[in-house]
Design a protein that fits this description.
alpha/beta, 40% helix, binds benzoic acid
């Protein structure tokens, strides 16, 4: 266990309470402490991990899986001192696969807690099923606003898309001399990000030149949309794309020749992790906002990067990795304090976890159960032959 991991699990039950919990669990009373659904035997907990193992967001799922596994490895496979069984299911590319996989984890596998989910439309449906069954759902990526609304069973370790979209509006309005075109995939995440961006961008005096929503998962040719951008006379382009779509979009944007004349802005997913290497020089100069960059210069982040690279075949951690690592950290803190391993007890304990140490910097849940956190302005630069999301400054709005 690294020193950072030890600090991350540094809050433990007061000694007397710990003994009491131990005694109750030894007496087989663990389950009787809670009243809700969800399997939990007092000293063991079953977690359903729902992540994409296929489709446009497959690489995001891989990063999240690595982050989750690293935290568990650093804590001997235990959270809150309890043995953890992880049941994995493939979220697929969208709700058609993901919702059924989530239902299987809840009903067949009877998990005590559900963690993960990348795609917002999938997450919104899974949330309903989880809340109905009183199973806590720790959303480790999907950013739709309505996911985290203060419901006692839903907690999010990632971001809210309208907030993230809004974080770049003022900067773009102040940096670009002229109207800006907006583009995103045609589903919840794309619409909410664009709406958040437009709100702060227009409030800061910016003009929108036009907008396009591209079919999610089936768009392979962006030329018709890029032609519209050119014809609109836009002086910059704001987009939301992630995973496989981010790679194709940035390559085609550069090939179309817009790279020189129409600067590109986006939430950080556009250039995060493996997609940046695949985009290559086409991504240089792209400006993004996100709550994490592996360029954050703190001892905690350096230690995390080293441990992650050792555990994940040399890969560099991404925001997705950190979100899943922090989901495990939040659950660790909650299970340390919970008076049972049933869903209701865990949900209650999640409401008082307090500050969560993290490679992004310590953070806490806000009143809606979103992370209260800083977003950074980042720029892709070629640093001695390696492409990096260099942090330019924290964004205050
Ligand atoms: C979403 O659907 O909420 C989402 C997907 C990929 C990256 C970020 C957000």
């Amino acid at each position: 266990m690294t020193a950072f991991a030890r600090r991350a699990s540094g809050r433990h039950l007061p000694f007397a309470a710990g003994l009491m919990a131990l005694a109750l669990s030894a007496a087989g009373c663990g389950d009787s402490l809670g009243s809700g659904s969800g399997a939990g035997s007092g000293d063991a907990v079953t977690v359903g991990l729902l992540l994409p193992e296929s489709g446009v967001y497959e690489s995001l799922g891989k990063d999240m899986s690595c982050g989750w596994d690293l935290y568990l490895d650093e804590h001997d496979g235990k959270l809150g001192g309890k043995d953890v069984t992880v049941v994995r299911a493939d979220e697929g590319e969208g709700p058609d696969v993901g919702v059924e996989a989530g239902n299987k984890l809840l009903t067949q596998d009877q998990v005590s807690v559900l963690v993960g989910v990348v795609h917002s439309a999938t997450a919104l449906a899974v949330k309903e099923a989880a809340v109905q069954r009183k199973v806590p759902f720790i959303v480790a990526n999907a950013g739709a606003q309505d996911l985290a609304d203060g419901s006692e069973y839903v907690w999010r370790t990632s971001f809210s898309l309208p907030h993230l979209g809004g974080s770049l509006g003022k900067h773009v309005a102040e940096s670009v001399d002229g109207p800006v075109y907006v583009m995103a995939p045609d589903y919840t995440a794309g619409h909410e990000t664009v709406q958040g961006f437009r709100e702060t961008f227009e409030a800061a005096g910016g003009d929108v030149a036009g907008e396009s929503f591209t079919p999610f998962g089936t768009t392979s040719n962006w030329q018709p949309y890029l032609s519209k951008v050119k014809a609109s006379g836009a002086k910059a382009l704001y987009v939301f794309y992630a995973g496989g779509e981010a790679v194709k979009f940035v390559q085609q944007y550069a090939k179309f020749g817009l790279g020189q004349s129409v600067p590109l802005y986006s939430p950080g997913f556009l250039t995060e992790g493996g997609v940046l290497a695949a985009q290559g020089q086409a991504a240089v100069g792209v400006q993004t906002s996100l709550h994490y960059s592996n360029a954050i210069d703190t001892p905690e982040n350096a230690e995390f990067i080293e441990a992650y690279q050792a555990a994940c075949e040399g890969a560099v951690p991404t925001a997705y990795s950190v979100q899943a690592y922090d989901a495990a950290a939040a659950l660790d803190l909650a299970l340390t304090e919970a008076d049972g391993t049933d869903g209701e007890s865990i949900a209650r304990a999640l409401s008082s976890v307090g500050e969560i140490p993290s490679p992004r910097g310590a953070w806490s849940f806000d009143e809606n159960h979103n992370p209260d956190q800083v977003y950074y302005l980042r720029e892709v630069r070629n640093e001695g032959g390696t492409l990096a999301n260099v942090i330019v400054e924290p964004l205050t709005d």
